[in-house]
Structure formats: structure tokens, C-alpha cells
Design goal:
This protein is mainly beta. The protein has 2 domains: 122 residues, no CATH class; 217 residues, Jelly Rolls. It has 4 helices and 23 strands. Strands 10, 11, 12, 14, 19, 20, 21 and 23 form an 8-stranded antiparallel beta sheet that branches. Strands 13-22-15-16-17-18 form a 6-stranded antiparallel beta sheet. It has a 4-stranded mixed beta sheet with strand order 2-1-9-6, with no helix packed on it. It is rod-shaped.
């Protein structure tokens, strides 16, 4: 039927056939014959007069609903007649059937006797006024969904906050240690020049750079040091000829195709290469020109200072200790401390308008004096931090971000032990 309480009445017998056991406040009795019915409790207006005794279903003469329906028929004549919903509501069900012509004609005949012998039963539908289980279920589902969504947002927010602490600079992640090999500074010529095709990528072709358009190397002015000027320990162009003293570990770091190139070729692994100086520098200023030449967007490149001597950076090893000051090809900068396989944020990635994005070259200058670290990009200081974990060490170059390819030139190192 529906989600309502169903009450079945015996119109002629005046008895309640069935009712919902949970509705004690509902007490309906219909007087014998065609008399009016009465209600008690708050439902006393549900049924004021008895329905027409000639009202029945098309397939069930002795039963009918307490509301208009197309299933009702009038049995006042020889054959069941259709009754419009208006007639049902105004006369058949409302108790006003005494004014119906068909009822008056039937009462004068013998058609009422079978009805008295077999009273009709009205199926009275009383609206259920208690709380709906369906709405309770919907409310519970909505409440649980809201709580679940709130918890999901908390988890996502926590991941965004903790991700920089776990990953550090772009492309950096702890991996199994690779056997270490030393890098010895030497003035001897390299064994061989690497094949220029070893780093070519059809989607990101490496092109030659015209040395004539590169400005002359100018040693940077130390921005943080005081006292006597820092001595220049290295002033090297890497674009005009193969450098005799820089490590060649193709395809990760090598001179080819007219430049010294670094490539983070393996997924989740960075490239770090030590500069060819033997001193451990306390006060230091390092400058270099770096340019992205290939790889997807999002890669980073920078300089390493105060690198500790226990781990050697050979382009493959992922374990070292020191400071990394970096710029990204999306116009961001940052400073990190690396403790062998763990990154610590000193300055997380922040945007800077001083950084040239994409494949445009950027001049980076990093410096360390006492516990103060600073990063300049294209002559503008963009980040600084204080950390006294490492007080002196070596210098290197860093490239991170899966597939990131970078060209290095104009390396100048000034410092003292």
C-alpha cells in the first residue's frame, strides 16, 4: 500500500477489523447500518460519516478504499458503474451518498439486502505521523558523509604540510646507497670526449650555445663577508672547451655538444657533482650560470656549499651532507640542508620574480659567512637563512627533478678556510 498505517473497518458491523498496534491513540468505530462513525483522540476528524454501501472495487465487491481511486465501482445498479473522483469524494466516501440518485433508486429496491448480508469493508488510510525511518536513514548517511569528507580534508592538508619535509628539493628522495668512488682533482686531459648523442632526447633536443653571446666571466663581489677580499680559487668557462678537471660520468654529468651538462636521468634521483677544489671553505662565495635545456617542467638546479668530505659527490651517489641553494624553472627558490639521506627545509620553495623561467639562463650566486647563508639570482638576493650545522666544506653543483637537463657555465669560486 504505502508507508502509512492501514486501518480496516467493517462498515455495517461497526467493528475495527485491524489497526497498527503501535497506534493506541487511534480508536475508530463505525455504527451498524449506514450510521455516522466517530473518532476519539487527535484523529477524531478522520472519518465523520460512513461511506456509501454500494462502493466497492472492480474485482472485490465488499471492499473499497477510504479515498478516491480508479479502482472503485458503484454497485447501485445491475452492473458496476464507473465513478468519477469528484463524485467519490463528494458523495461516495464523504457520507453524502444519501443525496445520490443511484443510491436513492437502489434503496427503494432489494439491492441493499445483499450488502447487509455481506457488509463492505473500507480500507481507511491514516497518515503516519511518527518520524520517518527513511528520513532518519538519509540523515545518518548525510552526517556520516560530512564527517568522512572533513576527515579526508584533514588528511590531505597534513600531507601537503609534511611532503616538503620528506622530499626536500625537487627530485630528491632517499634511496639505497651506491658504492662511493672518489673524485680526484687533476690538470690532465680527459681520457675521451663523450659522444654528443648520449644525452639527446628527441622531445627535448640539446642545442649548441654560441660562446660569443655569453658575457665574459666576472668574479662576484662577496655580499656578506667583511675584512680582506676572498681569494679567487676557480674561474672557469665550461662552454668553450672540455674542462680537464671536472668529473665525466655520462650520461649524468659530462662535457658534450659544446657544454658541460648534467641530467637527472633516473626517476627519483638527483645529480650532485663536486667542484674541483681541494680546500674546505668556511667563508665562501660561489657563482655560476645555469640553464635548463630539457626535461619536463618543474625541475630545479643550484649550488652546494660546505659539503662534508665523508661523502663524495660523483653524479651518481645520493648520499652527501651540505647546503643546497636552488632555483626552479617555474620561478621558485629555496635553501635546504642535506644530512646524508635526509632533507631539512631552511627556506621551502617560494616564488621569486628574479628567476627567469623555462629555458632561460639564470646567474646564481651563493654565499656563506659564519652561520648565514644567502642566495642571489640575477643580482637580486632572493633567500637567506641561518644554520650552524656545517661550518666549512666543499663546493658542488646540484640538479633535481626527473628528466631535468641543465647546462653549466661561468663557475667562479672565492673563499678561505
Amino acid at each position: 500500500m504505502s508507508e502509512r498505517a492501514n486501518i480496516i473497518w467493517d462498515v455495517d458491523a461497526g467493528t475495527l477489523i485491524s489497526s497498527a498496534a503501535s497506534r493506541p491513540e487511534l480508536d475508530i468505530r463505525i455504527d451498524a447500518g449506514l450510521n455516522a462513525a466517530s473518532l476519539s483522540g487527535r484523529h477524531s476528524s478522520k472519518l465523520e460519516e460512513s461511506p456509501c454501501p454500494f462502493l466497492g472495487f472492480v474485482d472485490e465487491r465488499n471492499h473499497h478504499y477510504s479515498r478516491p481511486t480508479v479502482l472503485h465501482r458503484c454497485y447501485a445498479s445491475d452492473s458496476p458503474d464507473l465513478i468519477s473522483p469528484v463524485e467519490q469524494r463528494s458523495m461516495c466516501i464523504s457520507g453524502q451518498h444519501a443525496s445520490c440518485g443511484r443510491f436513492i433508486a437502489a434503496v427503494g429496491s432489494d439491492r441493499l439486502e445483499p450488502i447487509r448480508a455481506h457488509p463492505t469493508t473500507a480500507l481507511v488510510v491514516v497518515p503516519h505521523t511518527g518520524p520517518s525511518r527513511r528520513w532518519r536513514s538519509r540523515f545518518i548517511v548525510l552526517l556520516m558523509g560530512t564527517i568522512g569528507g572533513f576527515l579526508l580534508l584533514l588528511v590531505i592538508g597534513a600531507l601537503f604540510l609534511l611532503a616538503p619535509l620528506a622530499l626536500g628539493p625537487l627530485g630528491a628522495s632517499p634511496l639505497n646507497e651506491i658504492p662511493l668512488t672518489g673524485i680526484a682533482a687533476t690538470d690532465a686531459a680527459p681520457d675521451a670526449v663523450d659522444d654528443a648523442s648520449s644525452l639527446r632526447d628527441p622531445a627535448n633536443a640539446v642545442t649548441h650555445t654560441d660562446p660569443s653571446v655569453v658575457p665574459a666571466v666576472v668574479a662576484p663581489t662577496p655580499p656578506l663577508t667583511s675584512g680582506p677580499p676572498l681569494p679567487t680559487l676557480l674561474n672557469r668557462r665550461l662552454i668553450t672547451a672540455p674542462p680537464p678537471d671536472w668529473k665525466s660520468v655520462p650520461p649524468y654529468a659530462s662535457w658534450n655538444n659544446g657544454a658541460y651538462r648534467l641530467q637527472a636521468r633516473d626517476q627519483g634521483r638527483f645529480v650532485a657533482v663536486t667542484a674541483p677544489i681541494s680546500q674546505g671553505l668556511a667563508d665562501v662565495v660561489v657563482s655560476a650560470r645555469l640553464r635548463k635545456t630539457g626535461g619536463p617542467s618543474g625541475g630545479g638546479y643550484g649550488l652546494i656549499i660546505r659539503q662534508q668530505g665523508t661523502d663524495v659527490m660523483n653524479g651518481i651517489n645520493q648520499f652527501f651532507s651540505g647546503y643546497v641553494l636552488e632555483a626552479g624553472d617555474r620561478g621558485e627558490v629555496g635553501i635546504w640542508r642535506r644530512d646524508r639521506d635526509r632533507w631539512t627545509d631552511l627556506v621551502s620553495w617560494v616564488p621569486s620574480t628574479a628567476v627567469q623561467t623555462g629555458g632561460t639562463a639564470n646567474d646564481l650566486t651563493v654565499s656563506a659567512t659564519s652561520d648565514r647563508l644567502a642566495l642571489m639570482v640575477n643580482g637580486v638576493e632572493v633567500a637567506q637563512a641561518r644554520d650552524a650545522t656545517f661550518t666549512s666544506g666543499g663546493v658542488g653543483v646540484f640538479v633535481g627533478g626527473d628528466g631535468n637537463q641543465v647546462e653549466l657555465d661561468n663557475v667562479v669560486i672565492q673563499g678561505r678556510e
